[in-house]
Amino acid sequence: MDPKWNEDLPIYRQLRDRVVAMILEGVLDDGDALPSVRNVAAEYRLNPLTVLKGYQELVDEGLVEKKRGRGMFVTDGARVQLLKDERRRFIDKEWPLVSATIERLGLSAEDLLKEIGGSGKGGEE
Questions:
Q1: Whole-prediction pTM value?
Q2: 112 and 92 share one domain
Q3: Do residues 102 and 112 lie in contact, with contact meaning Cβ atoms separated by under 8 Å?
Q4: Backbone phi, then psi, for 104, in 5-degree steps?
């Protein structure tokens, strides 16, 4: 995890978001243990309650489960659920903006596919 914190967002929320990113990127898989609250707090010089609050959000979302005396673990299907949620969020929130930009610039699907698979230079010919 990156030890730099953004001052605009509570640290517990940033911690939660970093764990989510680790799950999405496959750094943490189903059944993997999260680093202990004590270790994270010590490593990043955080209050253990801050770490616990971030972890608790993950538990509340069903992405992580507590195993008494053993720690916290990524739940089965967490990555699949996150991908589903992220795709839905992209379609609902980001795609309309991207689509409007594509239309405003007069780009076609062909233009975009050519950029992805072709030159990747992004300039006019």
A1: 0.73
A2: yes
A3: yes
A4: -60, -35
For residues 72 and 66, the answer to whether their CB atoms sit within 8 Å is yes
122 lies in some domain: no
Residue 1 confidence class, pLDDT cut points 50, 70, 90: low
User: 65-72: long-range contacts at Cβ-Cβ below 8 A with a sequence spacing of 24 or more?
Assistant: 70/33, 71/33, 71/34, 71/36, 72/33, 72/34
Contact 2/18 with Cβ under 8 angstroms?
Answer: yes
Measure Cα distances from 7 to 4, 14, 98, 111 in Å: 10, 10, 28, 40
Phi then psi for residue 49, to 5 deg, are -65, -30
Radius of gyration of the chain (CA): 19
Distance of CA 1 to the CA centre of its chain: 12
User: Residue 2 and residue 14: Cα distance in Å, rounded?
Assistant: 10
42 and 89 together in one domain: no
